[in-house]
Write a structure and sequence with these properties.
Length: about 290
């Protein structure tokens, strides 16, 4: 009688291990599919939120932060009010999100490019120049920093706090740049960074008013000229005598150093003495002998 061949237990084990459990495979596939779907949903949600913020920035630039509403934004974006509300939760949160988005874009356009410049006047000049360019771009829309300050200067609350925080952050960056110019020896050691910041900010406010409201030609060049005059006031003596680069189409006259008061007083006294001496001489000459 012939014996049937026996299969080694090891072979059975190998064959059994090469077949993945169907239930486990199905679970892993479902998990991967769900993960991809969730990722796509999150990405779509972020894209939708970004699109809403883009539209909100345009509205806020033309109508102010107070002009923002869930209803107006839903109409512009052709979304339902509930859809817009789901991304922000309230009108106040929408306004704060717009302020933060504006600040982030302002940093990208003005602050970060200037940080690539050397410390001192090169960086300070670039900060101001890019700020001026930003204002020129916003002539038809408006600066949310400036318009928002008008809207919320006397209205305490989270929106005002968010706006003031963003403006203070920008001012602090400018003040640090002024301080670095003092450290590099390009600005005088007695320069008050806070005072210089006040004067530079005043130039931007005047530019915005004259260029946007009054539509005065040449306002951009005048702002640049005013900045150079401000620099000359605070620069050290040797640097102040250097040639000042002017904005295109506008000549900046570097003020000549003033004479000390004592020198001017001595000159006047000398002139008076000479005049009196001449008068006495003339009187003696014309008198009869």
């Amino acid at each position: 009688m012939t014996e049937s061949p026996q299969v080694a237990p090891a072979d059975v084990t190998v064959q059994a291990s090469t077949e993945p459990p169907r239930a486990a495979t199905g679970t892993a596939t479902a998990t991967a599919t769900a993960g991809k779907s969730l990722g796509r949903a999150m990405q779509k949600g972020q894209q939708t939120r970004a699109a809403i913020l883009d539209a909100a920035l345009v509205l806020a630039s033309h109508m102010g932060l107070e002009g923002l509403s869930i209803g107006a934004l839903a109409e512009v974006t052709q979304m339902s009010k509930s859809g817009v509300f789901a991304h922000f939760g309230s009108r106040e949160e929408l306004q704060i999100s717009v302020i933060r988005e504006y600040h982030a874009r302002f940093e990208e356009e003005v602050f970060y490019p200037a940080m690539r410049e050397a410390r001192g006047l090169p960086r300070l000049r670039t900060l101001f120049e890019r700020w001026v360019r930003q204002v020129s771009v916003e002539l038809d829309s408006g600066c949310i920093y400036i318009s928002g300050a008008v809207e919320f200067d006397d209205r305490p609350g989270p929106v005002r706090d968010a706006l003031a925080s963003m403006v203070r952050a920008w001012h602090s960056a400018l003040e640090r740049a002024i301080g670095l110019a003092v450290q590099t020896g390009e600005l005088s050691v007695d320069t008050d960074p806070t005072q210089m910041l006040f004067e530079v900010h005043g130039l931007i406010l005047a530019l915005h008013h004259d260029a946007r409201f009054l539509r005065i030609p040449g306002a951009l060049d005048r702002a640049r000229a005013g900045f150079e005059r401000t620099l000359n006031h605070y620069r050290v003596a040797d640097a102040a005598n250097d040639v000042v680069p002017a904005a295109p189409g506008f000549v900046v006259q570097t003020p000549s150093p003033k004479k000390p008061r004592s020198t001017r007083s001595s000159a006047r006294a000398s002139a008076q003495t000479s005049a009196q001496t001449s008068a006495r001489t003339s009187a003696r000459t014309s008198a009869p002998r």
